[in-house]
């Protein structure tokens, strides 16, 4: 367990959201992050614009058909004030454009939102998330995506990421 990686997650920034669209979920989470002083006033607008231009949906069924699709939304470092990964469990899956094939859509049910105030670290954080997905035991990963409590999601990531 690497203390730097553990610092990427905080109990108070694990969310369970029941929005009907990515825009609704982004608004809810951005409002909470702004209230905690973790992002700037322009964070939401930039997040929405970036997601439209650079989609972040990932179809995990290529790793295993039993895994849900996810998204890894993020924005430029100038709109955030910390370095953290925000896990967001979605009660209802929502549509995201596929990162690899933007003309295709995925129904994401979990988001790993990257907050990164260092422009040089974005790719590293994305790679860390992909490593976590690829290296975590499949049964454990399936169980993780079924968790429905913020504290359980945090505990899993704090010990396994």
From TrEMBL:
Matching InterPro entries: PTrfase/Anion_transptr (IPR016152), PTS_EIIA_type-2_dom (IPR002178), PTS_SugarTrans_NitroReg (IPR051541)
PROSITE patterns given in the database record: PTS_EIIA_TYPE_2
One Pfam family from the record: PTS_EIIA_2
Signal peptide feature range: none
Domain of life: Bacteria
CDD domains: PTS_IIA_fru
The PTS EIIA type-2 domain, residue ranges: 6-160
Protein name in the entry: PTS system IIA component, Gat family
Organism expressing this protein natively: Pisciglobus halotolerans
